[in-house]
């Protein structure tokens, strides 16, 4: 449904809640200002209602989680929570955990013709990445980690080791292990891939156990690499005895228009990390690897080396089990591709000098804004986000300079909503420029 606003944005209730939150939450967590945020109260499909009763159109799918639509898995949560909401995941597990691990294997390594995939479940994307990095050390005995500039893998310490975003890693660098190499993420097939091949040659495989990559960089600004990147990494990892990890926490489960983004290049990793859309809203994630790699872990003797209290939570597993079934249906990827094509076509109609590039795959789309002199227009993007919020659209921006407007909506976006979005975006960019010029 299109937005329906009945108060100023943010409304009085949101503004009052902001004041309260500022008193009690660590000030680093939630950004609050006169024009941001709105406090969410209810969500369904592509819509969110705030505490003041305003209805918004959400083009973030709440960080990419609600691909199947807000509330899609709520009935599975209700049903399971009526029976049991918490168990002992790594001691006395549930049948649901077996179900989820079996389905993840079937959707990944078995489907790709590489035998059974084995899983470590966890609660957040960052934890799934940490499981993968620990597995790589177990499997190779080598602790070094290679990642890409501006890659985002989460903010836990292990995940920060793979992070290519200086702003997130630098404040904590003194507590991180030093052996870490960062490569340039290739933007084009010729120069980018050639430079990368040279960078790979300079690495010492003796000290590197893991190479982690997002098949499409999300937080970096929806950067789609040239075909050939994943194949090049696969070959280098094979000859170097390095575990190849695909972080598909954002791209996974049809977001890119294929079940997994690595399928655009038909390259199979040793480990895939998934999360976000896996359950449609419950914090659950997974590190799934080829059997021989995962079997580098010793058999449990009753004390798992890597686990957590909520691992395999039954509510999360019930929601994930239903979501995995839905994602496995071929028509979902087809729908995402078709909707993404339509969205890109409408965005392309916006003829604005500030738009430097519109790019993406499926429903993972970025609109990069740059000033005349080529500098990133993060200032304009920031003003556009607030303006779009006042127009009833929930949006975020990506990229190191925050200058890439991000479109990662729930999959079921109608043509009318897409046309509305493009029209509002055109207006918002134009008015942001006037607003900034007047400052
Ligand atoms: C590619 C990627 N990896 C890992 C993460 C971290 O996931 P979480 O925030 O659940 O820890 C994210 C989150 O945005 C992500 O986009």
From TrEMBL:
UniProt xrefs under Pfam families: Aminotran_3
Record InterPro entries: Aminotrans_3, Aminotrans_3_PPA_site, Class-III_PLP-dep_AT, PyrdxlP-dep_Trfase, PyrdxlP-dep_Trfase_major, PyrdxlP-dep_Trfase_small
Coiled-coil blocks: none
Record-level Gene Ontology MF annotations: identical protein binding; pyridoxal phosphate binding; transaminase activity
Signal sequence bounds: none
Superkingdom, natural source: Bacteria
UniProt key word Transferase: yes
Cofactor(s) annotated in UniProt: pyridoxal 5'-phosphate
Keywords in alphabetical order: Aminotransferase, Pyridoxal phosphate, Transferase
Similarity annotation: Belongs to the class-III pyridoxal-phosphate-dependent aminotransferase family.
Protein name listed in UniProt: Aspartate aminotransferase family protein
Organism of provenance: Oceaniferula flava
Taxonomic placement: Bacteria, Pseudomonadati, Verrucomicrobiota, Verrucomicrobiia, Verrucomicrobiales
């Amino acid at each position: 449904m299109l937005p329906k606003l009945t108060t100023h944005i943010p409304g009085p209730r949101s503004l009052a809640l902001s004041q309260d939150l500022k008193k009690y939450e660590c000030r680093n967590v939630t950004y609050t200002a006169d024009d941001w945020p709105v406090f969410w109260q209810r969500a369904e499909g592509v819509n969110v209602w705030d505490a003041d009763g305003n209805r918004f159109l959400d083009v973030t799918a709440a960080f990419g989680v609600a691909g199947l639509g807000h509330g899609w898995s709520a009935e599975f949560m209700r049903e399971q929570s009526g029976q049991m909401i918490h168990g002992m995941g790594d001691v006395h597990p549930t049948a649901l955990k077996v179900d989820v691990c079996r389905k993840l294997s079937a959707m990944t390594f078995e489907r790709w013709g590489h035998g059974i995939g084995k899983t470590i479940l966890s609660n957040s994307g960052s934890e799934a990445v940490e499981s993968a990095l620990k597995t790589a050390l177990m499997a190779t005995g080598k602790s070094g980690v290679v990642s890409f500039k501006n890659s985002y893998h989460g903010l836990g310490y292990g995940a920060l080791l793979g992070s290519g975003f200086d702003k997130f890693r630098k404040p904590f660098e003194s507590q991180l292990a030093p052996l870490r190499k960062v490569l340039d993420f290739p933007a084009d097939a010729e120069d980018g891939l050639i430079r990368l091949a040279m960078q790979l040659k300079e690495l010492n495989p003796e000290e590197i156990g893991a190479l982690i990559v997002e098949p499409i960089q999300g937080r970096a600004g929806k950067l789609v690499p040239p075909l050939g990147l994943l194949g090049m990494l696969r070959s280098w990892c094979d000859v170097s005895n390095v575990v190849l990890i695909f972080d598909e926490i954002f791209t996974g489960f049809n977001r890119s228009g294929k079940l997994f983004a690595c399928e655009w290049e038909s390259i199979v990793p040793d480990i895939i990390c998934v999360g976000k859309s896996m359950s449609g809203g419950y914090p659950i994630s997974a590190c799934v690897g080829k059997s021989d790699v995962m079997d580098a872990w010793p058999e449990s003797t009753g004390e798992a080396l890597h686990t957590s209290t909520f691992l395999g939570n039954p509510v999360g597993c019930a929601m994930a089990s239903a979501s995995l079934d839905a994602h496995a249906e071929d028509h979902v990827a087809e729908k995402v591709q078709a909707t993404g094509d339509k969205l890109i076509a409408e965005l392309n109609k916006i003829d604005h000098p500030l738009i430097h590039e519109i790019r993406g795959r499926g429903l993972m789309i970025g609109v990069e804004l740059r000033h005349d002199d080529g500098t990133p227009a993060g200032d304009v993007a920031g003003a556009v986000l607030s303006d779009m919020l006042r127009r009833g659209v929930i949006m975020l921006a990506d990229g190191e300079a925050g200058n890439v407007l991000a479109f990662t909506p729930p999959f079921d976006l109608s043509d009318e909503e897409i046309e509305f979005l493009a029209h509002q975006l055109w207006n918002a960019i134009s008015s942001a420029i006037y607003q900034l010029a007047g400052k």
